[in-house]
Specification:
It is a single chain. 50% of the residues lie in helices and 9% in strands. With 191 residues, the chain is mostly helical. The protein has a three-stranded antiparallel β-sheet with strand order 3-4-5. A two-stranded antiparallel sheet has the order 1-2. Helix 2 runs antiparallel to helix 4.
């Protein structure tokens, strides 16, 4: 009987709450619906200029720049020629960064860390990628100080970057995309 009483009171209490504050719940739902309608309407305008049907369409973004890819260009779109300007005033393209990532992948492969034998090659790639292109200081550290496995540690990466240490090709690619995107958006006055 006690178990049934508890669920009866639970139902009674919940029903009482809805009856007493139903008007408030309804007002909150209407307000949220109105806000959602306004936001979606604004987003629809933005997306329609790129050929999409609206907010609910499958919008495609360029992972290197964060820009919306026009719907008509999805099949042929390439960000390889998008560029940033480094401290020396040189244009650095996505293609150049991808080439360095490919070189890193040839050395590291699918391994989680790289070996002492690979440190000099990785350092050459990182000097160009991080110091010259992305203007980030780095160092190569060994795990546990034993000199068996190594990884890349970023010393002054921009705020909000997911990785501050890199050991795999995926980490390097993701980190490079994030830093490139921040630099690209800043240079081009994008949010």
């Amino acid at each position: 009987m006690g178990k049934n009483d508890h669920s009866f009171f639970s139902v009674l209490t919940t029903g009482w709450f809805v009856l007493k504050y139903g008007w408030l719940i309804l007002m909150i739902i209407i307000a949220l619906g109105g806000i959602l309608f306004v936001v979606v309407k604004d987003l629809d305008k933005e997306y329609k200029q790129y050929g999409y049907t609206g907010f609910w369409d499958n919008i495609k973004y360029d992972h290197w720049t964060g820009e919306i890819i026009p719907k008509a260009e999805i099949e042929t779109y390439s960000s390889d020629e998008k560029f940033i300007t480094n401290a020396k005033g040189e244009k650095v393209t996505v293609r150049q960064i991808k080439e360095l990532i490919a070189q890193f992948e040839e050395i590291v492969g699918e391994k989680t860390f790289f070996s002492e034998a690979d440190v000099a090659k990785i350092e050459t790639i990182c000097n160009l990628l991080f110091k010259e292109y992305l203007e980030v200081d780095y160092k190569i550290d060994s795990i546990g100080g034993k000199g068996i496995s190594y990884y890349i540690s970023l010393n002054d990466a921009p705020k909000g970057i997911k990785y501050d240490s890199i050991s795999t090709t995926t980490n390097l690619k993701d980190c490079s995309k994030e830093i490139f995107q921040k630099m690209y958006r800043k240079e081009n006055g994008l949010k």
